[in-house]
Amino acid sequence: MSHDTKIPAAPKPITIPKTAQTAALVATLAGVVAFFYALRSGHPDTAWSGYLIGAFFTLSLGVFGVLWLSILYLSRAVWSVSMRRIPEAMTAWLLPGGILALLVGLGAHTLYHWSHSDAVASDAILQHKAPFLNMTMFYALVGISLVLWLLFATVMVRNSRTQDKTGKVALRRQNVKLSALFGVVYAITFSIVSFYLLMSLEAHWFSTMFAVLTFTDMVQTGTAFVAIVASWLILQGKLKGLLNENHLHSLVKMMFAATGFWAYIYFCQFMLIWYGNLPEETTYFITRWQNGWLPFLIILPIIKFVIPFIYLAPRANKRKPRRVIAMAVLLIVAQFWELFMMVSPAVGHGEDKAHAHPPVIEGLIALGFLGLFFLVFSWALGRAGAVPLKDPHMRACLDYHQ
Q: Which of 232, 217, 246, 220 is nearest to 86 (CA)?
C-alpha cells in the first residue's frame, strides 16, 4: 500500500435518477392499491400476508444497514469505506419501516392464531406460550427492538457524517465500540422480532435455527441490494477513482458466502426436523407439501442457492457490474419467494388452511414496500457526501486490489 496515494476531491452527492424514483413511486402506489383491493374483495388473509412479507422484507434491509456497518467497522474492512454511504442510507428506513412493521398488529387476528382469546382458552400449548405470545408483549418487545436499532443507527451515522467535517479519528473509534455492543443487541432483538412476526404464524411449531435462518436471509438480501447500488455507481462512473471492480469483488464474495451459508442452514433445519420426526416440528414442512405448495417449495433452493452459487463461483462474475446486478436482482426475488413460503401456507387453520396460488397480490404489496423503501433510501443517499473522504482508512481503500 502506498501512503502517498492522493485522495481525490469530494464528488457530488449521489442522486438517484428521476426515472428510478418515479418507478418506485408507481410501485408504492400499486402496492397500496393491491392491499386495499384484497381487503375490500374479502381476502384479508392475502392482504395481510402480503403486508407482513413486505414489512419484514424491507425492515430487514433497514437493520442490515446497521449490522453491515458494525461488521465492517469491527473487521477493519478497508475495502468498504468508499461504499459506506449505501448502508448508512439504508438505515433511514428504520423509522418509517419500524412503524409499518408495528402496524402488522392490526392484522393480528387474520395472521396469528394465538391472538384469539378463544383459541388460547382451548389450547394447552397456546396457554403455555401465552406469557410471550400476546399482543401487549408483541408491541412492547418489537417496539423496544425497533427503538434500539434506530438509536444505534442514528449515533453511528451521525458520527460518520460529523467525521466528514472534523476528520476526528475518535469518531471512528466510537463507532467501533458501538458496533461491538450492537452485535449483542442485534442477536437478541432480531431473534425476538423474527419470532413474533414470522415463526409465531405457526405457534405450535418451533425451530432453534429459525433466527439464524432469518439472519442469513437478511445478509444475503442486504448484500445483494448494496451490490446493485454499488454496481450502478461503477457503471455510471459516479465515484470514479473511489469505487471499482476490486471493491465490488469483495462485496460480492460476501454475497456468495451468504448464499452458501443459507443453503447450509436451510438444509440443516430440514434435516434435523426430518431426522427427529417429532410432530410439533415436522408440521412446518408437511404444511408446505400439502395443498399444492410442494412445487413452490422446490423452486426456493433453486433460485436462492443453486443458480446463484453456480453463477457467482467464477471470479469474473464477481467483478462485472452488469452480471452482479442480474444475480443480485434474482436474490431479491428469491427472498420474496422464501418469505412467501414462510407466510402464505401458514395462514388459516384446519379446513381453512391456505392453498397454493400464484403470489400476484402478495407480490404487488411487497413491491409497494420495496418502492417506498427505495424512495426513502434515495432521499437519505443524497443528503450526505458521496464518500467519507476523511475516514483514516480512505487511502487504504483507494489502494485496495483484489
A: 232
